[in-house]
Specification:
The complex is a heterodimer of chains A (288) and B (344). Chain A is α/β, with parallel strands linked by helices and 288 residues long. Chain A contains 11 helices and 7 strands. In chain A, helix 3 packs parallel to helix 4 and helix 3 crosses helix 10. By secondary structure, chain B is α/β, with parallel strands linked by helices. Chain B has 15 helices and 12 strands. A 7-stranded mixed sheet of chain B has the order 2-1-3-4-6-5-10, sandwiched between helices. A 5-stranded mixed sheet of chain B has the order 7-9-8-11-12, with helices on both faces. In chain B, helix 6 runs parallel beside helix 8 and helix 11 crosses helix 15. Classes of the chains: A alpha/beta (288), B alpha/beta (344). At the A-B interface, helix 6 and helix 7 of A face helix 6 and helix 8 of B.
Chain lengths: 288, 344
């Protein structure tokens, strides 16, 4: 039941949660006020969000603005629905909101997150802005810990491969490294596909690890659908002694549309309308 | 301060700004800006200044020397700087970005829109060297559209002080105001483009325009460096027997919805004057307001849908129509239109 799951959750629970998240994302898309969501990139980021919200992030859903909280930014704002699902299960708001508020007039869940959503840190949606905002938060939290004895906070930013084609992301990567923001953890949901095709064809990002390393970041690579690998990498990243003075990035190799065969790696499902028939077929696969 | 008195300012420095009296007499209002920035930083330990390699010309460097631990040089990366500032604001800081108007409002507009204006975060975007007052850099640096852009964004307050006295009050007011502010300023060291216009005892308040001179025949409405030109124009008009109001609109948004229509109704003719394109800035804002509230003949003085160029400011201002003479000419046109409309 949402809000009642012990945190940190064990591996079985994390995997179970991922199945619930995917099912809720299909339902949310069906009930979306506009009939649509960015389902492909939502399904690719599910395991990352499960580990963050049910293992890594220190939060109090009953006090979303608690000053000592870890900060979370979904830079790939088009997948906000996936964050909403994780937040609902974590207890930030009733799960019913996923199905009656998304893309609806005066709803608290916009296609791209804004501050109307309890627990949201900053609007995103125009790609490339999340890491900069996260760097600002990481600098600010470190300053407050050093000068005002505030609780040290971690700042987690989830980026897409599309975020990595935005110049601003690299401005932020440079600044975070220069300011030694080792409380900043970026996770790249590298689902290998931009809107019109594979990143390798549209705009080559490789070597992505080499790029981050050359900017001074501590780099790890994981299977982005394996909660054990993600959890382990996050644990390494959040230990101060891992790489003192260096921001951390986890490159998570994922599959766009993960879990629904007709969506997996299919560019038609970057964003889209889900018919009732497709919804039934997709649910059946998840339950299968 | 001779030119100041000619422009209408009288007497001594107002109480409350006396601490800056020495600086207020300086022709370079950038020094006042640097000093005020440092002052607000000293009073509030949650004030952070972010720079993009313009701290020397803007004199934000004064803050950097005084409070280095809260000064962040983000190098030449304005988009990162704006989002970074939004992140700082979201964890409890007041983030001030004293950058060149052109780079912050053009290059980083998407960041201002998405992460500052939309969430109404406590970020003060300062656009310096605004309008034509970046003379030696030319069109790429002369920001003539920033008021039009920034006043169209919900949640954003837009302020442009007309002289050092107003600056010394408006900057602390902008910092104290919770939410996004666009603070526009000229480059102040070029032949004193902003002589004193504020009267004794002047008190700046966000949203309030100031009637600097009261007349009967026409209302001259200026912002920034054009306020002093409006005062000069009023003197010229007075010698012709025309009695002119002069209003300083230092808050371009929210526009003073009381004073402007009231004076327009009283005089029946209006001229606006700004260091900005006539499209969508002060002239646009006043035309929108009066078009609905109190339509009267109106003429707009400002840059007429052109790009700027690099040349001495003394040549640029007349070429682009930013002079007292241009205000007088516009006043003649507006007065003629008023006469025609009244069948005279």
């Amino acid at each position: 039941m949402p809000g009642k799951i012990p945190v940190p959750a064990d591996v079985d629970t994390l995997q179970w949660l991922c199945r619930q998240f995917r099912r809720d994302l299909l339902d949310l898309t069906l009930h979306s006020g506009t009939g649509t969501s960015h389902i492909g990139g939502e399904l690719s980021v599910v395991e990352i969000l499960a580990v963050l919200f049910f293992h890594a992030l220190r939060l109090d859903p009953t006090q979303p603005e608690w000053e000592g909280r870890d900060r979370f930014i979904l830079s790939k704002g088009h997948a906000s629905a996936a964050m909403y699902v994780a937040m609902a299960w974590r207890g930030f708001f009733p799960r019913e909101r996923l199905f009656d508020s998304f893309n609806r007039l005066h709803g608290i869940l916009q296609e791209h997150v804004n501050l109307e959503t309890p627990g949201a840190e900053i609007p995103t949606g125009s790609l490339g802005m999340g890491l900069s905002a996260g760097a600002g938060m990481a600098w600010g939290c470190r300053y407050l810990a050093e000068h005002e004895a505030a609780r040290p906070c971690g700042v987690y930013v989830v980026l897409s491969d599309g975020d990595c084609t935005e110049g601003q992301t690299w401005e932020a990567a440079m600044a975070a490294s220069h300011f030694s923001l080792d409380n900043l953890i970026a996770i790249v949901d590298d689902n290998q596909r931009l809107v019109t095709g594979p990143t390798g064809q549209v705009m080559r990002l490789e070597p992505l690890d080499g790029k981050w390393e050359s900017f001074g970041w501590h780099v790890q690579q994981v299977d982005g659908h394996d909660v054990v690998e993600i959890r382990q990498a996050v644990d390494v990243a959040r230990r101060a002694e891992t790489a003192p003075g260096r921001p951390r990035v986890i490159l998570a190799r994922t599959l766009k549309g993960k879990g629904v065969s007709f969506m997996e790696g299919n560019d038609a499902w970057h964003a889209g309308h889900l018919s009732e028939e497709q919804h039934r077929a997709a649910l059946k696969e998840l339950e299968g | 301060m001779t030119d100041t008195r000619e422009a209408g300012g009288q007497g001594s420095t107002p109480a409350g700004t006396q601490v800056f009296g020495e600086l207020l007499g300086n022709r370079d209002i950038r020094q006042v800006f640097g000093q005020m920035l440092t002052g607000v930083g000293r009073r509030d330990r949650r004030v952070v200044v972010l720079d993009c390699q313009t701290a020397i010309p803007t004199m934000a460097i004064t803050f950097a020397h005084a409070i280095p631990e809260r000064f962040l040089d983000l190098a030449v990366a304005e988009q990162n700087a704006v989002s970074f500032a939004a992140g700082l604001a979201r964890v409890g800081f007041t983030a001030i970005l004293p950058l060149f108007a052109c780079f912050v409002t053009r290059r980083a507009l998407d960041q201002i829109y998405t992460q500052v204006a939309y969430p109404a975060l406590n970020v003060k975007v300062c656009g310096l060297y605004a309008g034509l007052t970046s003379p030696n850099t030319g069109a790429t640096h002369q920001m003539l559209q920033d008021v039009a852009i920034m006043r169209s964004l919900p949640h954003v307050t837009v302020v442009e002080p007309a002289d050092a006295i107003e600056l010394s009050q408006a900057l602390p007011a902008a910092v104290a105001h919770h939410g996004p502010v666009y603070f526009r300023m000229v480059r102040g060291d070029l032949g004193g483009p902003c002589p004193r216009v504020s009267p004794d005892g002047y008190e700046f308040r966000i949203g309030r325009a100031t009637l600097l001179r009261e007349g009967r025949d026409i209302t001259l409405i200026g912002s920034g460096l054009m306020v002093s030109r409006c005062l000069q124009a009023a003197e010229t008009l007075a010698r012709e027997g025309v009695s002119a109001d002069v209003i300083n609109v230092s808050t371009l948004k929210p526009l003073d919805q009381a004073l402007i229509p009231e004076r327009a109704r009283r005089t029946g003719a209006v001229v606006t004057a700004e260091n900005h394109t006539v499209l969508g800035g002060l002239g646009g804002a006043v035309a929108e307001l009066l078009g609905e509230a109190s339509p009267v003949p109106l003429r707009r003085v400002g840059v007429r849908d052109r790009f700027g160029e690099s040349a001495p400011l003394k040549d640029l201002l007349p070429e682009y129509g930013l002079t007292a003479e241009a205000v007088v000419d516009a006043a003649h046109e507006a007065l003629a239109a008023k006469d025609r409309s009244r069948g005279r």
